Design the sequence.
């Protein structure tokens, strides 16, 4: 055909025009109404749309032995002589696939044929396509055939039809005898041969013999494959043959369309089960009953002329989708996916599918999965309950290896399915602008219908499933791949104004980064002109999909862990109560039923957890997700800084006080997706991060911790700290984690990280939540870990010194809060140990005579105390360790007048607790269980004393502490440290000297108190009851107090202690006259006391001399 130089005959078009189609339909309907061929006037045209045939008489001739009727019966063929062991293997595969996907067997035989002959004939037909055989009835050599003989033989072979009542088979294939057409030809005195002009009538008669419970396509589709094969087999000049075969191809396709669209033409009652392409699309194109690409190409060519052809395709796709909606990943879902994937390769078909009303016809989030065309395809997932139950049956007894194997198997299956889904979506968005628009609209419908997925208590029955949304997220990540390069070369194509152009993504009700609902509504009510590009569309859809999809599933994993822990405890409690019901069968039955229900829920939760881990721990998927989040990070920093930032550029900090509106009104989940995704990967699969992290992540954390006012939600800012903390957690050979080395060596981090961490350390003192008091300790614990990681770089020590000198108030607030934390957590931890000690002793005592209920209550009380002690002790260790680091680097800052007394008091109190008389109560069973190591803690405080001992003001403050300063405590500390060789001899000798300085300072302080006596009331600080040295007046309350006292107060409370009015240290009013009077009084009192001592000393000497003289 391809080599034929002659063009096709003009009377053999590839497809009939609309007028001819109407003629065909009218003629066939008329024929069906009369029940017999319609008589025609002599010379009247009849037959196919492109052919004519003489009028026929209803009276049979002698050459016809059968009476024409509406339904033509086909003679039975003799059994096939082919042995069963020579069957084509592809026939077996086709039969197996059909059994799984079709309700009834599709066949090409008449209603009188048995199933055995059906199978044999199909096998023979398939074999004949592979190995065509010459007609046994033909006596004319092929080389001597006329074109009319070739046409008769070829059409008979292709359509398995005959006009010879004696020829029942062709080779091993049964033929359909056409008595009506034979009678027509005889009456018209035409040769009794099959011709292209009479082929339409022949096909109508042949197809009318097919039983109503079978599809005509069973007969026509193999014919289509044979005619296509014949066309491709033509060689050399074959103009006449080419015309015949093309006409045969055209009529075969037309009858396929009529078989689906107008089954009445064949005397059939319409039946949705048989009048559809759906079952045939589920076969591979090369199979006998499969629909090949040539068939689809021909269908597409008729789209413009006949709108019903599109409906045939879309109805078939809807049928495939409907079948798939009742399947799971355990079922044979692959043929359905392959069918849609194959159809979407044809752009007109893809467009027709996307424009079908069913493409996004649903009224709820669960309905999207079941009732839209794409929904069932995205619904297939390992997270479907039937799949989790199948792969993780008996989860409590599964070992880790078995779990990992099952997860890997599911992961590989899911990866393949998600690749297919991405291929389908890529074909849809590339098919046409209309298809692209409809596809993006479907994704928007999905995310907009699932806003409540991130609610505190989401109702799963009103939302899409985790597996469905995970597939949506992964596919959208795949759509973003073209602009996710490591150089971020296309990030400038993401237009933030997209959100102000009636976006598909609904963000109206979402919390904004730094704006309230009213301001947000006003901002987005102003529509911006212009058109958003495809990159922006997909970018914001993917962001939303991550928020409602993968991030929600991440959160679900944490919830499942809590549920499993609770259920495991309940099952254990129930098992412990089993003996109580041993003597009551009725109660035992109720007990067993209750236990069964708990175990059932526990098994379901564990299976789901393992399945979710299998999906979320997919390194390939997470690597793509992280790459998308890197793009989001760079884009977000560009919006916040109004610059063209990329990781190779430096952000100037701090940012301007005036925040860009485009940033303020962004949905909060833009930043939440970033930190949530990175934190999850850091925690569970950190090895993915090694090759997927860049400097932009560090820049993001430092920028928004430094300019924390850019973000309203304190917990979202806290997640930035968690991101740095998780990034410094050891991973394999990286002892400082994935981010540690960058935090140490990156100049941007060296310049800004320490200040950012200290600033946020201060801010979390008040988060505004009812849990803020406890939240701050968790956040500060992570800050300590990050600082410990970076402290090896001396640059950070220099930054700390610089902060203390240039930003004194800021640094003092930091140190003051550090002292508050140390004091609180240390006191809470150490006071729990005496309680634990007493409870352990009581529970061990056999003479305690505790009832079972009392013992249970004591055990619960002990467990609570142990849990609290462990938490507080971990915080204590980190806080003390941080204080040790800072005091070694910057001892002068911890001995400023505002805080030195508090530092000394805290150290003395802790030392008394560790080595004083109360230390005996700290002895508990297995102290390491609570992270309590008394010797290590004592050494930490030993070092802090030495670090601060260089300051004389600290020595004096230690000695002034009248509550906890006890010289014997220092002796006990030295004794313990020496006994266990916890420090070097030089350090112990240094501590001995320091102890002596404390003793001397104590004597001096006592002498000072004795000398000063009772100062005048106006010279005393009203809060501390100490002699003022630098009196100041508070501007609102007009109270006078010492500068160090009010400064210390303002470190933790920015208000006037009397009037509660806002107050800054710069606002206080110095009192130089009062200060001079105090200094004068002090000097005079000290001089008088000294003179009195000298006089008393002189009198004592004179008395001693007189006594000695008297004795002599």
Sequence:
């Amino acid at each position: 055909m391809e080599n034929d130089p002659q063009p096709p005959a003009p009377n053999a078009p590839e497809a009939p025009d609309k007028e001819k189609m109407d003629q065909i339909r009218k003629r066939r309907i008329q024929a069906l109404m009369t029940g017999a061929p319609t008589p025609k006037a002599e010379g009247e045209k009849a037959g196919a749309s492109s052919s004519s045939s003489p009028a026929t008489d209803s009276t049979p001739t002698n050459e016809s032995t059968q009476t024409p009727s509406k339904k033509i019966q086909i003679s039975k063929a003799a059994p096939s002589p082919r042995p069963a062991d020579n069957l084509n293997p592809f026939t077996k595969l086709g039969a197996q696939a059909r059994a799984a996907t079709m309700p009834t067997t599709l066949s090409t035989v008449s209603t009188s044929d048995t199933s055995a002959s059906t199978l044999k004939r199909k096998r023979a037909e398939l074999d004949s396509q592979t190995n065509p055989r010459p007609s046994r009835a033909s006596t004319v050599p092929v080389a001597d055939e006329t074109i009319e003989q070739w046409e008769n033989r070829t059409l008979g072979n292709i359509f398995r039809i005959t006009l010879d009542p004696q020829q029942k088979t062709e080779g091993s294939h049964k033929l359909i005898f056409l008595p009506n057409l034979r009678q027509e030809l005889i009456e018209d005195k035409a040769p009794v041969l099959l011709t292209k002009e009479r082929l339409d009538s022949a096909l109508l008669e042949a197809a009318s013999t097919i039983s109503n419970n079978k599809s005509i396509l069973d007969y026509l589709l193999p014919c289509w494959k044979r005619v296509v094969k014949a066309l491709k087999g033509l060689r050399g000049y074959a103009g006449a043959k080419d015309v015949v075969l093309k006409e045969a191809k055209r009529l075969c396709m037309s009858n396929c369309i009529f078989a689906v669209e107008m089954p009445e033409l064949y005397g059939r009652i319409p039946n949705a089960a048989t009048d559809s392409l759906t079952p045939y699309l589920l076969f591979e194109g090369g199979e006998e009953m499969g629909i090949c690409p040539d068939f689809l190409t021909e269908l597409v060519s008729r789209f413009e002329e006949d709108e019903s052809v599109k409906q045939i395709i879309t109805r078939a796709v809807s049928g495939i989708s409907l079948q798939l909606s009742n399947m799971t990943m355990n079922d044979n879902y692959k043929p359905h996916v392959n069918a849609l994937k194959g159809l979407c390769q044809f752009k007109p078909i893809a467009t027709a599918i996307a424009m079908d009303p069913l493409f996004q016809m649903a009224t709820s989030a669960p309905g999207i999965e079941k009732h839209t065309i794409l929904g069932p395809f995205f619904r297939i997932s390992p997270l479907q309950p039937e799949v989790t139950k199948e792969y993780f049956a008996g989860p409590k007894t599964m070992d880790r290896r078995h779990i990992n194997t099952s997860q890997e198997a599911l992961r590989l299956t899911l990866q393949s399915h998600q690749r297919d889904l991405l291929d389908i979506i890529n074909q849809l968005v590339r098919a046409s602008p209309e298809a692209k628009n409809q596809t993006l609209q479907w994704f928007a419908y999905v995310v907009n219908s699932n806003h409540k997925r991130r609610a505190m208590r989401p109702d799963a029955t009103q939302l899409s499933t985790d597996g469905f949304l995970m597939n949506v997220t992964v596919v959208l990540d795949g759509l973003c791949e073209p602009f996710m390069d490591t150089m971020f070369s296309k990030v400038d194509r993401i237009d933030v104004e997209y959100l102000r152009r009636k976006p598909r993504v609904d963000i109206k009700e979402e919390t904004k980064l730094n704006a309230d609902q009213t301001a947000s509504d006003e901002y987005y009510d102003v529509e911006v002109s212009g058109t958003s590009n495809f990159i922006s569309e997909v970018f914001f859809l993917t962001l939303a999909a991550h928020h409602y999809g993968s991030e929600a599933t991440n959160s679900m994993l944490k919830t499942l862990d809590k549920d499993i822990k609770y259920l495991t405890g309940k099952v254990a409690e129930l098992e412990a109560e089993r003996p109580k019901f041993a003597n009551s069968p009725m109660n035992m039955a109720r007990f067993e039923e209750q236990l069964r229900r708990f175990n059932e829920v526990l098994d379901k939760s564990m299976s789901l957890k393992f399945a979710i881990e299998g999906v979320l721990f997919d390194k390939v998927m997470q690597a793509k997700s992280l790459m998308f989040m890197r793009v989001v990070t760079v884009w977000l920093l560009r919006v916040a800084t109004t610059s063209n930032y990329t990781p190779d550029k430096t952000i100037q900090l701090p940012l301007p006080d005036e925040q860009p509106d485009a940033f303020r009104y962004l949905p909060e989940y833009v930043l939440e997706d970033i930190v949530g995704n990175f934190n999850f990967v850091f925690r569970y699969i950190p090895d993915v991060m090694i090759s997927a992290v860049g400097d932009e992540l560090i820049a993001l954390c430092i920028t928004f911790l430094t300019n924390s006012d850019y973000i309203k939600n304190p917990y979202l800012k806290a997640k930035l700290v968690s991101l740095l903390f998780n990034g410094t957690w050891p991973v394999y050979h990286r002892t400082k984690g994935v981010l540690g080395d960058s935090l140490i060596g990156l100049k941007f981090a060296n310049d800004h990280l320490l200040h950012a961490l200290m600033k946020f350390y201060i801010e979390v003192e008040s988060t505004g939540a009812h849990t803020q008091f406890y939240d701050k300790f968790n956040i500060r614990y992570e800050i300590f870990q990050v600082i410990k990681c970076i402290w090896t770089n001396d640059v950070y020590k220099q930054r700390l010194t610089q902060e203390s000198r240039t930003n004194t108030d800021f640094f003092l607030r930091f140190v003051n809060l550090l002292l508050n934390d140390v004091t609180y957590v240390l006191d809470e931890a150490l006071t729990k140990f005496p309680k634990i000690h007493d409870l352990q002793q009581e529970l061990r005592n056999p003479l305690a005579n505790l009832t079972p209920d009392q013992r249970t209550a004591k055990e619960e009380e002990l467990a609570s105390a142990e849990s609290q002690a462990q938490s507080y002790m971990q915080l204590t260790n980190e806080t003390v360790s941080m204080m040790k680091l800072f005091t070694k680097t910057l001892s002068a800052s911890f001995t400023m007048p505002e805080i030195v007394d508090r530092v000394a008091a805290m150290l003395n109190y802790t030392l008394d607790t560790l080595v004083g008389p109360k230390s005996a109560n700290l002895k508990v069973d297995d102290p390491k269980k609570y992270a309590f190591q008394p010797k290590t803690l004592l050494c930490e405080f030993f070092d802090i004393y030495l670090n601060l001992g260089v300051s004389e003001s600290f020595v004096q403050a230690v000695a002034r502490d009248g509550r906890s300063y006890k010289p014997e405590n220092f002796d006990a500390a030295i004794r313990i440290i020496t006994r266990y060789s916890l420090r070097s001899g030089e350090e112990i000798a240094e501590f001995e000297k320091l102890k002596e300085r404390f003793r001397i300072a104590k004597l001096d302080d006592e002498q000072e108190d004795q000398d000063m006596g009772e100062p005048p009331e106006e010279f005393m600080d009203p809060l501390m009851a100490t002699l003022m040295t630098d009196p100041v007046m508070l501007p609102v309350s007009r109270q006078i107090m010492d500068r160090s006292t009010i400064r210390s107060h303002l470190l933790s409370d920015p208000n006037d202690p009397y009037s509660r009015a806002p107050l800054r240290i710069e606002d206080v009013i110095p009192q130089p006259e009062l200060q001079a009077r105090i200094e004068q009084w002090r000097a005079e009192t000290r001089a008088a006391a000294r003179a009195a001592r000298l006089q008393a000393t002189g009198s004592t000497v004179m008395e001693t001399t007189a006594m000695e003289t008297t004795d002599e």
